[in-house]
Structures are given as C-alpha cells and as structure tokens.
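pasting Glycosyltransferase family 2 protein for the record, 339 residues
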Amino acid sequence: MLNWNGRDFLRQFLPGVMAHSAGAAVFVADNASTDDSVALLRAQFPTVRVLENGGNLGFCEGYNHALAQLGPAFRYYVLLNSDVEVTPGWLAPQRELLEANPRIAACQPKIRQYSTDPAARQLFEYAGAGGGYLDSLGYPFCRGRLFDTLETDIGQYDDARPVAWATGACLLVRAEAWHALGGLEPAFFAHMEEIDFCWRLQNAGWQVWYQGGSTVFHVGGGTLHKSNPRKTYLNFRNGLALVYLNTHPAELPAVLISRVALDWVAALRLLLQGQTADFWAVLRAHGHFVGRLGYWNIRRRQFPPRLRLHERAGTYTGSLVWAYFARGKRVFEKLGVRS
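structre below
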C-alpha cells in the first residue's frame, strides 16, 4: 500500500486488509507524510512493515522505489490503494488466475463503490469497475462505467476475461513482469500509469485479466478530487503520452492528431463552462508533452509498440466519444465490444 497523509484511510481500511489477506506480507510505503501516518502504523499495526520513501515521490516512483527494496522474495505484488475496503477471500481468486496461466502478468478484481449507503455500494466504481478497456483513440473506459455513467452490479460482470488494463487501485502483478518492464512510468507521476503499464505488458507478450470472482470497494478521489486542475493536467498530459508511447507506428499519426483535436474541444468546453483553471491545465499539459518529446521517444524505443488495434485484448474499434455523446450508448453492452 502506498500512503501519503492517509492516516484516516489506514485506520479505517488497513484492519480489513490484515484480516482478509492470509498468507500475504503487508507493507506500507510512505511518501513522507506530514500527518502521523507512520506513528499510527508503528503503534497500532506493528506487524505491518513500513517503507519510508523519504519524499513525496508520487504514485509511480513511490511504488517503483518501494518494490525495488523487496528483492526476489516475492512472486506477486499487490498494489492496493489505502482507500480500498477488501472483502473475505478477495485475494485467492486473483492469485489462482495467475498461477493457472503463466502468461497472465496482472489482474484486478471487481471494483465497486465504497459507501455507507447499501444501494450506492451496488454501483461499479469509476476507477476499474468491471475491467479496463480502450477505444480506437486510446480513451480508457470500463465495463460498468462509461464516462460518468455507472452501472449497478447485478452479476453481469462476474466472469474472468482478458482486458486492456487493470486498475492501479487494486492491481495484482507478477513480480517477474514488473521488474522486466521497470515498473510504472516515472514521468507520469500519477494517473493513467497503470494503463500505460498494462499496454506495455501486452506489447511485450503478456496478458492482463479481470477476475470477477473477487470484489473490493473503492472510495475514489481520496488523494485528488477529479475536478482538481492538477488532475486535469495529469490526465491530459498523460493521455497524450499514453498513446504516443504505446500505439503501433502505422496507427500513431491518425490517433495522435485526433486526440489533440479532441483535447482542444474539451478545453474550449471547460472555458465556456467557466472552468478557467482547468482550461489552462489542458494547455500546460500539451505544452509539457511536446517539451518532453525527446524523453518520450527514448521510452518508446525501450518498449516498442508491437500490437495493432485488432491484436490487443480489451479494445473497442470505434470511438467511445462518438458512441456515448452522439449515439447515446451509456452502458458497456450497447457498444458491442468483442470478448
């Protein structure tokens, strides 16, 4: 678990992790919290091993630095947000999936919304839901969640299947694959880093799966609210970097041009809605993406994109933006995505 000033989440959710994770060693990597998170861990959770990163390294480097310290002792890692409530037996179905198929490098459970309201707990959660997908332009979405439309869990996604990406809120990953790819992309800092990692896994010949036989509940937005301009900046910058790093060379020009154009449409919409700070965040995101093209090119050569759209699992060959806003397709099953 990665922590930054998450004392209250640790107090609330860590007891469940300890109770329902038999056979697993629990580590908390702390990004130089300024609250009393570390003191709380040492006083109330003495069996939890604390890794102090020495600074706020962000989500990506926070995990990279922490997992580099563990060495070869573990076959699997679980990246678990501190604002996740686990359930009895949550870990075993995922671990069994990886043990049954050595080509599966990562998987996620079903992610539902954490709430004290029983009806709200039946809703899929924004970050991960019933498994991650990508459309033809690299826009991420999930079974159970298209944009801000959340489905109710009625058992429609209880299966196990390959997907495009698994959420970083609760990500089980094979240690061999993690280290082969060097972990998460450090330049992302946070947001979309797990999508990039999973896309790189597929390009390297691994598989990414969803395991609907396991369920956890996620608060979401626990560290950065989705309307925060900082998050807007990270999402737009990392969104461009994501497609630039991982799209097949034959498909990249059309995808990148389309993404830039749609980003400008989104920026103008934000401006018209009076969200000036978010508008400027989009512009800064584009400027900083272009300013680091040299770095992105180095990374693209290190992990060359090998798969075309139709060769990747968890892809929708159409445009999610068009299907959702122009054609009114608000739930996953209406998209007609291939299995």
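The mean pLDDT is 95.
The CA atoms of residues 51 and 273 lie 43 Å apart.
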